[in-house]
Each structure stands twice: as C-alpha cells, then as structure tokens.
C-alpha cells in the first residue's frame, strides 16, 4: 500500500508529550507511529460514535499489536507466567481487600 504522507505541525500540551514519550519507550516505537495511531483511532471513533462492533474490533487490533510487541521484547517466546499461580495471588489479594473493608 502506497500512502502519501503530508507534513503538518501540531501543538501538544506537556502531559500529552510526557505520555507519548513514555508509551514510545515502553512499546519501543517512534512517537510518530504512536501519534499517527492515536489520531487515526480518535478520528475513527468520532466518525463511528456508539458503534460497539467497531470499538471491539479496534480494541482487539490493539491487543494483537501489544502481544506482538511483548513477544518481540522477549525474543519471540511466550511470557514466563504461571497462570494458576497468578490467579491464586489475585484471589488472595481480593480476599484480603474484602476482609479489610469488612473490618472497618
């Protein structure tokens, strides 16, 4: 696909720049890539307000890219996570939170 790009200038506030910089470092992507993606997603959501199917497809697409990035960061190997242990820890944390709330 041969897409013609157009140079433009945008003014971002300091919080937007901080977030864009942090995400670029975390995802090992350029700020340009992230800004373009954010603009595309924002424009599409404005063009499709209330479209649940479109939002679902967009979220799934972003999740797929995130999985690819995570795998790339780990040399193509799955993350070393013991799901059973993780679920157990989450349940224990939830139980402790419920006990703390109940003791007040």
What does this 3D model show about the protein?
This protein is mainly α and 104 residues long. The protein has one domain. Helix content is 70%, strand content 0%. It is built from 4 helices and no strands. The chain has helices at 14-27, 31-47, 52-73, 83-102. The longest helix has 22 residues, at 52-73. It is extended, with a radius of gyration of 20 Å. It starts with 13 loop residues before the first helix and ends with a helix. The relative contact order is 0.06.
Poorly predicted regions are none
Fraction of residues in β-strands: under 5%
What is the count of β-strands?
Answer: 0
Q: Quote the distance from N terminus to C terminus.
A: 61 Å
Order of helices and strands: HHHH
The dominant shape is extended
Helix/strand layout:
Layout lengths: L13 H14 L3 H17 L4 H22 L9 H20 L2
Name the features.
0% strand, 4 helices, mainly alpha, 104 residues, single chain
Task: Give a brief outline of the structure.
The chain has 104 residues and is mainly α. It has helices at residues 14-27, 31-47, 52-73, 83-102.
């Amino acid at each position: 696909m041969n897409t013609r790009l157009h140079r433009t200038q945008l003014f971002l506030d300091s919080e937007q720049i901080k977030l864009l910089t942090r995400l670029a470092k975390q995802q090992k992507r350029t700020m340009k890539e992230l800004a373009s993606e954010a603009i595309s997603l924002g424009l599409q959501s404005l063009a499709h307000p209330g479209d649940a199917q479109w939002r679902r497809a967009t979220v799934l697409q972003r999740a797929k890219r995130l999985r690819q990035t995570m795998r790339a960061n780990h040399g193509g190997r799955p993350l070393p996570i013991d799901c059973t242990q993780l679920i157990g820890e989450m349940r224990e944390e939830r139980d402790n939170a419920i006990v703390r709330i109940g003791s007040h």
